[in-house]
């Protein structure tokens, strides 16, 4: 043990004999690490944002809907009684919020024009549902309780129909019994998201209004379930499926309800990993260069130490210690820098507005122009381990070489 | 495509129909329309009409046979021009089908096409489908009674009830005081802007009653366009029942 | 001259270090070239999907048609006049007619968008005909066969051989109707087509809509898509005064243009990062080399080599390193790009296709090598390494020969 202590001391001093080189190497590794962290943070954060946004616009992390609805949606398919579903959800702690929805398609007309639309009936008090469009309302208000006739329409639709807040519109379509039905609604609010698909086709009404239109006494089309985080989906999914298997419904995770989103995230993830790999390789090469150099230039010194009796094994360890200490210091430096960067992007965010004029849609969800970084501990630990290992491995070759030196030849080396 | 209520038109026919101008005092607007409504229910009819449509790009004239029972059932078959002979539309309550003889097929009109024009006219499919709309969906008041343009008229202002599935803001109906023959119907949106004008003219004796035989519809934003319906013949109390209005009869 | 010789020899005195540095730089370079090529390839693919598949690179309509989609805004005389006027090598054109109608099959019916095309001419312009999921494409301008968009076929529940009823209002106000037979179903192309397109022969549609000799659009594809803006300007000049509008795919799909620009931005960011890191490596190397040779440098400066020459020498070493890395890294990068350009990189293991702003993105990416990508990568690498070498170079030339000479290595 005492030897080890001495070797470590040696290693430490060796590092600081050439301050500049050590610092530059630390900078290289550290920067690479910090970059990797920020890249992972922004990448993951971006994906998570997209998924959150997607499930908010869609039907939750987990969706419960009538069997066969995903393949063939139609106004007449409903879950006749949502109580058993709600009961099954009651005691699951991961469930953050449950939203009842009645969705369908129809034709909306005003005195001037008409247009095909998709509508969603929600509970006006549901905060989650509200958060989807309420912030984008530019005229009038979001739906309110007790107002069964209120409808929220997009700006482009309002322009096409030439209506403003308070005006009558008639919704027409097939009701639950396949008959043609028409109901009056009044424009409660007009919203603008900047995504033309939404602004042109998506309307929000109250559950009551939707039931009235479809001629339903009770029941809903979908139960959208929102969890604390995307990573709890699997667990809750299997639990729900076991509890509700006997009902004529399907319980689906967002990945099946919004497959386009899933595919994009997978692809982007792959791209990110590739990028990280590249960074690692470049950093590794840089380290190799440095450590190799530092070993080689001390050939005479090593030769002397070996001649004086230091066993090659210990020399190997010394150099490995050097590498290890260097790695650790770099990681502290890089980690600090990385966290700083992550913290900045987690709070202020990476603002990409101005890069594109219109809001982009990707795989059906709006891309938020401000990216927030999100680092999961597992990811960081994984990264640190990889960087550490890479550094160590890089140090192996020089260390082995050094330990194999023949003392006599080494001393005579210039 | 502008919504135009053909039911209102046909129904307005009856506005003055069995109207015996023997009121003790000035009738209220509701009374006027109420009596008519009672008469209209259960009334069966058969008529031959000609429809002329003038648009910015073309002009056409169609002749058709129309059977109807109350407001819920109607069957329309085109007889001229030859190209469209046999094309028919069946309405049963709120559902609508078209029969196309050229390909010998029946198509159900989906709700998404309800706002499409019927046969290229300024009517929409929805207008044909709407039943009971007028009396149930509006509140009335007599807004003017007196002389206008040399005619002694009643003017009835109809405001849609708050719950009614109607897009208009206001409909103003003008009828002749003497025989309650309608002269004009004006449709406004909620901002008070005139959207369309329907006029009635050529009063003559049809099916034993004295009624206007021509209804013309002009959209306010395209005053050069027009759809004009002319009743060539009309008979009431025809021997047909609900079962007459079937998909089988649609094809015959 | 001597300086160059010196620089060259210095490099090879320490083989190992030089080799490692070269590999780092080469790697960085080849990765950048590959990245540029892949991103370019992906961009091209997206544009390709949007254009060659269905919309063409340029579309000509009567002025205002793109916004109004009014069937009365047609080009007369089958557009033969216009097509003749714009004829030139590298440009293929095909006529199209459009209309709205109701399509019905069995119990289901829905509103659809009709496409009337000339299959022979269309084949030269777009790849619709080879993008079938099942069945076969149209064979003539006439005939009762139709091809449907993927989702439309699903929602109407029709398959090959089923009948489809089309009901529309003809241009003269009469009722146009006919029965057609589904002969093919398209693969996923884009949201609009997938959901509502019914494609038939153009003469058939002309009969249905009673628009003899009329077309709504001339769809054009170019042999050199990158020339699209130039061609548009030319066409506008030739067709001046005919009340026509000439639109490029950028105007037809504005969102696509933005995504492409976004991709470019990401590529440059990556460029910065990769070369930034590599430059640190170069800095490190040159500094070590400097330190190693401090006595020697002292010696030659004492012998009369001017400081400026010292700087030049060091910079030259870096430059030579860069040039050698260019050869290796360039070779790897270029050959990699060419390989991926020919065989493509199949990502279907990771994810299947998805849609971006309404256009489907496929899963096999073909790299597309461009001079721009190569040149930018090389120039960046060399610049960055020269910059990194500056510090050591300046330090070197400031050495006091006497002190340097007496430094113990």
Provide a descriptive summary of the structure in words.
The complex is a heterotrimer of chains A (414), B (252) and C (409). With 414 residues, chain A is an alpha+beta fold. Chain A is 54% helix and 20% strand. Chain A has helices at residues 2-17, 19-57, 83-90, 127-133, 155-161, 196-201, 207-214, 233-244, 254-257, 259-297, 299-307, 312-347, 377-403, 407-412; strands at residues 62-66, 95-109, 114-122, 137-140, 150-154, 168-174, 180-191, 202-206, 222-227, 249-253, 350-351, 361-362, 365-366, 370-371. A 6-stranded mixed beta barrel of chain A has the order 2-3-8-5-7-6, surrounded by 4 helices. Chain A has a two-stranded antiparallel sheet with strand order 11-14. Chain A has a two-stranded antiparallel sheet with strand order 12-13. In chain A, strand 12 (361-362) and strand 13 form a beta hairpin. A 13-stranded antiparallel sheet of chain B has the order 6-5-4-3-2-1-13-12-11-10-9-8-7. Residues 1-24 of chain B have low confidence and may be disordered. Chain B has a single domain (6-232), classed as outer membrane lipoprotein receptor (LolB), chain A (Clam), CATH 2.50.20. Chain B has helices at residues 6-13, 29-40, 125-129, 133-137, 247-251; strands spanning 44-54, 59-69, 73-80, 88-92, 95-100, 105-108, 138-148, 151-160, 170-176, 182-188, 194-206, 209-219, 226-236. With 252 residues, chain B is mostly beta strands. Chain C is 55% helix and 20% strand. Chain C has helices at residues 2-13, 15-55, 65-68, 80-86, 119-125, 150-156, 191-196, 202-209, 228-238, 249-252, 254-292, 294-302, 307-343, 371-397, 401-405, and strands at 58-62, 91-105, 108-117, 132-135, 145-148, 163-169, 175-186, 197-201, 217-222, 244-248, 345-346, 354-356, 359-361, 364-365. In chain C, strand 2 and strand 3 (108-117) form a beta hairpin. In chain C, helix 1 (2-13) crosses helix 13 (307-343), helix 11 packs parallel to helix 14 (371-397) and helix 13 (307-343) runs antiparallel to helix 14. The radius of gyration of chain C is 31 Å and the shape is elongated. The chains are: A alpha+beta (414), B mainly beta (252), C alpha+beta (409). Chains in contact: A-B, A-C, B-C. Chains A and C meet through helix 2, helix 10 and strand 12 of A and helix 2, helix 11 and strand 12 of C.
